Amino acid sequence: MAALEAARSLLVETGPQAVTLKAVAGRIGRTHANLLHHFGSASGLQKALAKHLAETICSTIRDAVIASRSGIGKPRDVVDLTFDAFDREGAGALASWMLLSGNEDALDPIVDTIHDLVVDLDEYGSDTQRSATLALVLMALGDALMGGPLAVALDLPRDAARDRAEKMLVEGLQTAPVTPEG
Question: Which residue of 9, 52, 68, 82 is most buried, as measured by CB atoms within 10 A?
């Protein structure tokens, strides 16, 4: 766990290229060989980090969805947590780096965790909710990668994509079919 927290700190501070076995080992006072034994390679470390980030972030998003459903929270909370996960928490940069580095199964931990979240929230049978989840995640990923420069180029406020995502979620909630349980 200390290695993954150190890797997360490196990711946020310096970017995905800094998440190496040597750098993480140096942060936690271990040897490169020790981490190599545990993770197998730098891509193994990055994949473990992606899984750790996805699980941590999806847990927080799950709580926000439940709060929103109960009237305590609001859809914007879910939007902000999702966008922050891909931007401030570095998940977008990490996923892109892993893919560009040739790690074909790089997205598996993220995709699997999002799938499990949708199933856990009992929304897998809803086309509306699965489609909204897909759109929200893709918007957050795109925003993390080029949202700032694109918003400037289009003379829009920096949070325009978040505003659009919130509107999409609210409209989806209004048109979602009512189930016997809810």
Answer: 82
For 138, other C-beta atoms within 10 Å of its C-beta total 12
Residue 74 per-residue DSSP state = -
Interval 18-48: pLDDT, tens: 888 899 999 999 888 888 888 888 888 888 8
Structure tokens at 28: 């936690």
Q: Measure the CA–CA gap between 35 and 57, rounded to whole angstroms.
A: 24
To which residue do tokens 């931990």 refer?
109
Query: Has residue 175 got a pLDDT over 70?
Result: no
- Give this prediction's pTM: 0.81
| Encoded tokens for 123 | 């929304």
Range of the domain at 48: 43-175
Q: Which residue has the tokens 């390679």?
A: 41
Residue 28 lies in a domain: no
* Residue 167 within any structural domain of the chain: yes
Provide long-range contacts, Cβ within 8 A and 24+ apart, for 147-152. Answer: 147/87
